[in-house]
Design goal:
Number of strands: 0
Strand content: under 5%
Number of domains: 1
Order of helices and strands: HHHHHHHHHHHHHHHHH
Number of helices: 17
Largest sheet: none
Helix content: 55-70%
CATH architecture: Alpha Horseshoe
Structural class: mainly alpha
CATH class: Mainly Alpha
Distance between the termini: 52 Å
Shape: globular
CATH topology: Serine Threonine Protein Phosphatase 5, Tetratricopeptide repeat
Length: about 325
């Protein structure tokens, strides 16, 4: 390993007691190295948040609705229809579809999990928590435990509504926010300098990214901020700074400060120390490129639908 700001080799144990403003920092991994084994996370923080177009969901509603009249319909078709309604902003129709599914196929985990998400999007947090907690009882490990992170996020939003200044003190996972602690955490494959790091759940990154990809989490500054903190505590500083940039753009008050701290440990920036505006512009251009790829995929899907290839696109 190399120091980012000194040619002197200082015993690692001494760094534990040096104030963060004075300590020399270790280089972090390159973006390419960090992304190994984290392909989905790396794709999402770089703008490849795969979403379908409104045309896709409108066509899916028209295609799926008649299938519910069949005697041999599968329960999943109700989920397909409800999610399409939700993506079109027709949340009450999504809820009604799940309620109809519950009558026809009672007691399924997917019904309860979807109802929890839909009620959350409708702003009915008490009902959302009720359904999501039921989903966790039925299947605690499904979706990488995504529902447990939804519960934590909703509970945090409720506390935040009562105490707005809470956003300055904590994020919804309850992880420590002190940069002078997480900056010393290296990639898990390398030496961990700070031993008092919190124990992160194994599914935390997949769970948060799942909410961003499949829910409306891509619009939440709190979710992006918590993803950034989780990545930082996992030693993935390059990925963390990208999540922090999204949180900053969405209005999180602490994101810019944490991004500035992360810059100090990232190999690509440690030598030239560019201004944040320059780094932010690079990250925004990278995000825009990822979004272009998403839109290209959407155009391909819409072209197939225009040719009547609904089954090929929807997979049923």
């Amino acid at each position: 390993m190399k120091f980012a700001c000194s040619l002197l080799v200082v015993p690692a144990v001494l760094l534990l007691f040096v104030p963060p403003s004075l300590a020399c920092l270790w280089d972090s991994d390159t973006l390419k190295e960090e992304s190994i084994g984290l392909d989905e996370v790396a794709a999402v923080v770089r703008g490849r948040v795969l979403k379908h177009s409104a045309t896709f969901y409108e066509r899916k509603v028209a295609y799926t609705l008649p299938l519910l009249e069949r005697e041999d319909v599968k329960p999943e078709r109700y989920d397909d229809l409800a999610v399409a309604y939700e993506k079109l902003g027709r949340t009450q129709e999504a809820i009604a579809t799940m309620e109809a599914k519950e009558k026809r196929f009672p007691g399924l985990y997917t019904t309860v999990a979807n109802l929890g998400t839909f009620h959350a999007h409708a702003g009915d947090y008490p009902r959302a928590l009720e359904e999501l907690r039921r989903a966790l009882v039925l299947n605690p490990d499904a979706h990488f435990g995504r529902e447990k992170y939804q519960v934590k996020a909703i509970e945090y939003l409720q506390r935040l509504a009562a105490t707005p200044e809470l956003v300055q003190k904590e994020e919804f996972l309850g992880l420590p926010l002190e940069p002078d602690r997480y900056l010393f955490v290296m990639n898990p494959k390398k030496t961990v300098l700070r031993k008092e790091q919190p124990e992160l759940p194994k599914d935390v990154l997949q769970g948060l990214v799942g909410i961003i990809r499949f829910g409306s989490g891509d619009k939440s500054p709190h979710l992006w901020f918590s993803l950034g903190i989780s990545l930082a505590w996992s030693g993935h500083k390059n990925l963390a700074i990208r999540a922090m940039r999204r949180a900053e753009l969405l209005g999180h008050p602490l994101a810019r400060e944490h991004a500035g701290e992360l810059i100090r440990t990232i190999k690509a920036y440690s030598k030239k120390t560019p201004e944040w505006a320059e780094i932010a512009a690079e990250l925004d251009a990278e995000w825009a490129k990822g979004q272009d790829q998403v839109q290209q995929k959407q155009r391909q899907e819409d072209a197939l639908l225009a040719k009547g290839k609904d089954k090929q696109v929807f997979g049923y």
